[in-house]
Amino acid sequence: MAQKFKDAFQKLAQNIPKGGGGGAGGGGPGRGAAAAASRAAGTLVVAGGLGYGAFNSVFTVDGGHRAVVFNRLLGMKPHIYNEGLNFNIPWFERPVIYDIRTRPVNLQTLTGSKDLQMVTIAVRVLHKPDPNHLVWIYRHLGKNYDQRILPSLMNECAKAVVARYNANELLTRREEVSAAISQELSTRCSGFHVLLEDVAITHLAFSPEYAKAVEAKQVAQQDAERAKYVVLGAIQEKKTIITKARGEAESAELIGNAVKRNPGFMKLRRIDAAKDIADIVAGSGNKIYLNADSLLLNLLGDADEKFTKSVHGDGGRGWLRK
To answer: Which of 40, 200, 204, 206 could form an SS bridge with 210, CB 3.0 to 4.6 Å?
Structure first.
């Protein structure tokens, strides 16, 4: 900027007309004007240089940032500059500002588990540089330190941890796997003065063949459980049938014994049956043309006598013989 001011005033001085050489005192006013213009140009150059120096002698560090300074004569200065207004020597010193706020980085890698199953795992890491070692980070890694070290370290640590677990353990012990990756990665990053605040597994996928095998296994287990319940149901049904048959046999035996001891038991049954049939016939809108004996409604006359004969037998031919 100062050089531009100087060039401009030099051009202005060159354009000022000079006095002719014919007169004795003709050159005096021209030389005086040129000298005045030169002095004005020098003054402006000095002012411009002072303004440039004042403007470039300070720099501002925003919130959540830190700065280190590179000196053209001495190299990196060991001091860490905090937030706010700071001073440096123009041209000789150059500030380098670092963002020390937490930033995320994502990595997805394909690796193998302990049982040789291919697993696709995605890891998300929240990281930031160590504010006390920014000079070392700039000297060895530069400003893009995260792009230099994190992808390789995350890839190596994720593969090393996944190789310790079987495929099913990666699902059932996911929190433990995430903690192991975080511990391994924190140990490796500490050597580069990078701080980790959180490590999380965002995605975990297996090969299509393994997914089909797991699905087939689950279907087989469900079929086995279903078959087990079918067998249990059949056993219970068998017990029910046996219990029912046993009850019917005992009921028939009890009824036979009751008829042997007292034929009036069958008469009571006939009365109950006749009552039920009479209720059904009375509630029906159809006309009945069968006789009372066919409908078991003849409870008078010789019906009981015929029934007794059929029970005890006529000449020893009845179904209930004494």
So the answer is: 206
> Residue 57 phi/psi, 5° resolution?
-90, -5
CB count, 10 Å around CB of 97? 16
Q: Which residue has the tokens 């020390």?
A: 100
Residue showing tokens 């994502």: 106
Q: 130, exposed or middle or buried, with CB in 10 Å at 0-12, 13-18, 19+?
A: middle
Angle at 231 between CA 225 and CA 237, to 5 degrees: 135
DSSP state of 301: T
- Whether the model clears a pTM of 0.70, i.e. scores above it, the answer is no
Distance of alpha carbon 320 from alpha carbon 322, whole angstroms: 7
Q: What is the rounded CA–CA span in Å between residue 132 and residue 145?
A: 15
Distances (CA, A) of 266 to 259, 274, 308: 7, 12, 9
User: What does the pLDDT profile of the chain (322 residues) look like in tens digits?
Assistant: 445 545 654 554 555 444 444 444 445 566 777 777 777 777 777 777 666 666 678 899 999 999 999 999 999 999 999 999 999 888 889 999 999 999 999 999 999 999 989 999 999 999 999 999 999 999 999 999 999 999 999 999 999 999 999 998 998 999 999 999 999 999 999 999 999 999 999 999 988 888 787 778 777 888 888 888 888 888 888 888 888 888 878 877 777 777 677 766 667 777 777 777 777 777 776 666 555 555 555 555 555 556 556 555 554 444 444 4
Q: Considering Cα of 268, then 274, then 277, then 282, what sign does the dihedral take?
A: negative
